[in-house]
Amino acid sequence: MVVIVRHQYERTLASTNCSNSEDGPDGGLFGYFEEPIDANNCRDLIEGLKDAAQSQGPFDGVVGFSEGGIVAATLLVEDARWPFAGFRCGILFSAAPPLDPDDLRSGIVRCMDPVRDGAVVRVPTAHIYSHEMDVAASKGQACVGGNVKSPLHELWAQAGLNTPEHIHASLARLCDESHVFVHDQGHRVPGSRSREALRGALRAIDRTIQSAQA
Fold first, then answer.
1. What integer pLDDT is reported at residue 29 of this predicted model?
2. Tell me, what's the pLDDT at 109?
3. Are the C-beta atoms of 144 and 66 separated by less than 8 Å?
4. What whole-number distance in Å separates Cα of residue 189 and Cα of residue 120?
5. How far is CA 163 from the centre of its chain?
6. 88 neighbors 123 (Cβ within 8 angstroms)
7. Distances (CA, A) of 206 to 97, 117, 171, 180, 201
8. Are the C-beta atoms of residues 129 and 65 closer than 8 Å to each other?
9. What is the pLDDT of residue 2?
10. Helix (H, G, I), strand (E, B), or coil: what is residue 118?
11. Would you tell me how many other CB atoms lie within 10 Å of the CB of residue 210?
12. Cα(66)–Cα(108) distance, integer angstroms
């Protein structure tokens, strides 16, 4: 899941009522990574989100979980190279390195590498993830960093990213300013299961937003 957001953030540890909609707040679906992975599919996904950001913005940042975090990071790279939204920050949960958007336009799907590419995201980012394998992965659900193959698993293997720790840490190294929080809750967004993990995630998000506002 990837969400483009305006800054209206309130930190709370109290219970709140949330929508059960699987399609997100606006019911919009722009696409997803298909298998086998295809440059045209990935490019269309990114271009659709760019169009949405430009037509519905301005937005302050982008939030992504799992493969949505990869999409969010790819948008941040694109915005740094070819500004289209002026994003000020990114919040990335259980995410992996972005795809190179310039390569996608050339028909190449490549996972970005901090050794080769250096820092390519220029705004503050929060990286919230776990080194633990999620129980969901053992039940056959595909996830980033788990022990089940994502459509992007071959790209990670080519880059030598073979564990959740390597995958998530490589993304943080691709960013100029990374605020990292590592929890023990597996492949999920910290919530009511662990107040300690939730507090840690909120601290990383707070620091990221404060830095973006500086």
1. 57
2. 93
3. yes
4. 25
5. 17
6. yes
7. 22, 28, 20, 12, 9
8. no
9. 56
10. coil
11. 12
12. 22
3-state helix, strand, coil in the chain (%, to 5): 40, 15, 45
Mean pLDDT in order along the chain per 10 residues (214 residues): 51 43 49 80 92 90 92 97 96 95 95 94 97 50 51 80 86 97 92 93 96 92
Amino acid 14 reads A
Percent of the chain scoring above 90 in pLDDT: 58
Whether omega for the bond prior to residue 58 falls within 30 degrees of 0, making it cis, is yes
Distance CA 145, CA 66 (A): 8
Are 35 and 151 spatial neighbours (Cβ–Cβ below 8 Å)?
Answer: yes
Distances (CA, A) of 126 to 114, 123, 148, 206, 207: 17, 10, 25, 9, 8
- pLDDT for 34: 74
Q: CA nearest 94: which of 142, 39, 42?
A: 142
pTM for this entry: 0.83
According to DSSP, the β-strands at 121-130 and 89-93 are: parallel
Instruction: With residue 182 as reference, give the H or E element that holds it.
Output: strand 175-183
| Dihedral angle, C-alpha 96, 171, 38, 56, nearest 10 ° | 90
Predicted pLDDT at 113: 92
Q: For 23-64, how does the pLDDT look when each residue is reduced to its tens digit (9 = 90+)?
A: 444 445 566 677 788 899 999 999 999 999 999 888 999 999
* Alpha-carbon separation of residue 46 from 42, 116, 122 (angstroms): 6, 22, 18
Q: Which amino acid is at 144?
A: V
